[in-house]
Amino acid sequence: xxxxxALLAAAASLxxxxxxxxxxxxxxxxxxxxxQANVPKLVLxxxxxxxxxxxxxxxxxERYPSMQxxxxxxxxxxxxxxxxxxxxxxxxxxxxxxxPTTEVFELPFMVGDARAASYAYWNMFEEEMQEEFSDxxxxxxxxxxxxxxxxxxxxxxxxxxxxxxxxxxxxxxxxLLELTGAEPIGMPVPAVPEGLSKGVIDGTTIPWEVTAALxxxxxxxxxxxxxxxxxxxxxxxLAMNKGVYEGLSDENKAAIDSVSGxxxxxxxxxxxxxxDGPARQAAVDNGxxxxxxxxxxxxxxxxxxxxxxxxxxxxxxERGKDGQxxxxxxxALMAEYDPSLDSYEALSN
Length: 349
Hints:
Blueprint: H1 2-12, E1 25-30, H2 38-54, E2 59-64, H3 76-82, E3 87-91, H4 114-129, E4 136-143, E5 147-151, E6 165-168, H5 171-180, E7 183-186, H6 192-197, E8 203-207, H7 211-214, E9 222-226, E10 235-241, H8 242-246, H9 250-258, H10 262-274, H11 276-285, E11 289-293, H12 298-318, H13 323-336
Parallel strand pairs: 1-2, 1-3, 6-7, 6-8, 9-11
Antiparallel strand pairs: 3-10, 4-10, 5-8, 5-9
């Protein structure tokens, strides 16, 4: 942490004097949300600004929102691997089954705190997941705040979803929907508003923070959230092209490393979760109804979706992985998280 702070402090001083270093590298950062959405504005731009500062101007990060470099969101991880983009932010679940170990954080009612889960995710990435991501260089791993339902009709109990067409964000979320009797509809987040307005879906599963950018409170009347652990979370990665990273000078690698990794991952997950509050208030101000399922009532939901755990553990066994051990490790790491680890410095804020 001391080295990173020194790099950032030195870089910040460049605003008071002519740049001592010429730009050497331009990185193209590609992602699927509009530039004004929370993740680009509060997370990705912060990382990019910090890279530019830590490298003392040697690295420039060009930002391409809303798939401006072409393709569709499920292609982002391959765009990083193939060099279409130098850096991508993506939902891991957009490529179902390809990165199975990450799904431990997508199991229903597994995650209670985004910072703790993002801390655990980074540690487990270093311990368990590097082979799965061997085609790219990972600079951040995190989860969002509590996933929940946003629907045209009220949802209080699992049976209320019977027959509804609900957008699910990952393979395990779709399994959850099937177990409740809903029809899961796969679509990337940017397609949700059109899906709701045209009646292709009756609702969606997303966290609060992205609802404002998608204008969800204007398209549905009901929102169902859960006390205690989240109904679900999705996993994200910020990934670099491996050849681009390995081709950097040691000095430039050190600059990127100093503003990436565990501290950045905790910051990213926590920042997304913190953005839930203002977005929730916007739904309240719009006059929408927010249904809160108590921890006691959530037990019926947990019982309904318990088969997901059994199936997932069996699937991991087929892949030569101990699914129960992964669950136990994730829980242990989340329990050991200490808020003092949340120390990422956002120079642009």
